[in-house]
Design a protein that fits this description.
The protein is mainly alpha-helical and 111 residues long. The protein contains three helices and no strands. Helix content is 78%, strand content 0%.
Length: 111
């Protein structure tokens, strides 16, 4: 009787150990899957950083497109609009027509 009980006890021990090993392996497998899901090459963190970088680059592209449009508009004005050219020459380069005087206004600094 003792031997039968010992065999049953050892069989239960083995099955308990096998269950623990299976649970441990499942836990490790799930842990690896979760870590790779969040931090792997195609993980959520990587996708989030790529998306934020994409948004930053898209904003920069939009800004540069707007700047390009402004510069092309100014280029067109400089090629065709003589009043604009005259205005730029007077304001930016302090040029004057014959007989005109250019005054430079210096603002006082508050001390």
């Amino acid at each position: 009787m003792k031997r039968i009980n010992q065999k049953r006890g050892s069989i239960k021990n083995r099955s308990n150990i096998q269950k623990k090993i299976i649970k441990l392996l499942l836990f490790l497998g799930l842990s690896v899957l979760l870590i790779s899901f969040f931090f792997g090459d195609h993980g959520l963190y990587h996708l989030y950083t790529l998306k934020s970088e994409r948004n930053r680059i898209q904003k920069e592209i939009d800004f540069l497109r707007n700047q390009r449009m402004v510069l092309e508009d100014e280029k067109t004005k400089l090629k065709t609009d003589y009043k604009y050219i005259e205005e730029m020459a007077r304001e930016k380069y302090r040029m004057a027509k014959k007989g005109e005087k250019v005054f430079k206004v210096i603002e006082k600094k508050d001390d």
